[in-house]
Give the backbone structure.
Amino acid sequence: MKVLILDNAEAAVRRAADIVARLVGDRPRCVLGLATGGTMLPLYDELGRRHVSDGLSFAQVATFNLDEYIGLPPDHACSYHTYMREAFFDRIDIDPARTHLPRGDADDPQAESLAYEARIADAGGIDLQVLGIGQNGHIGFNEPTSSLGSRTRIKTLTDDTRRANRRFFDTFDQTPRHAITMGIATILQSRACLLLATGAAKAEAVAGMVEGPLSAACPASALQLHADATAVLDRDAAAALT
Ligand code: F6R
């Protein structure tokens, strides 16, 4: 895994944006895998800024998000559909028909998971999967103990993850218990992976990902298997690396 350590979060975000922008510039019809969460917000701000000021166009790009909460329709204020529209899609020139997230309100989430895998394959696979990392080492919503061979499926969220997500909901009880997430094998199938981690709270998970044993206890450690994975870190997130 290539590890890039930048002085601060702003520099790490700019470096991650450089990697995305280079791909989109070189291959306007590329397929991006996207993530949600707090870490991604400044990255989407930066890419949105480059769209406006540098003319970076996403008009022909297709996107596939990692995950969506089960039970939330796309127009729910806390759905990842809404997050993506507000944080990114509404601020760039992307064709909404080329953006994809699993449907959290599907009648049959298992069938939706299989259909999502098929949609990724139909698009020719993902060129660059953008990832964040949970404090427990999760990627997407592949919580610790997730099979390294997993595909898109239903996952039960740990209480730790629900507590971390609680800030977006009125109460802990309203915080969803399940999500549809791309699997670890789905993520590893992407032609390249770019993981962005900032802040001291991620230091332990980052150390497990980069230097820990390859283990389902730290799902992000599966990226050690990927031939083209890059971790972009700020100093705080890199602090536990030896
Ligand atoms: C969500 C996702 C998650 C987040 C992770 C970090 O689509 O992929 O794995 O990246 O939970 O979230 P933040 O950035 O909020 O700490």
Residues 2-199 form a domain with the Rossmann fold fold (CATH 3.40.50.1360). The longest strand covers residues 229-234.
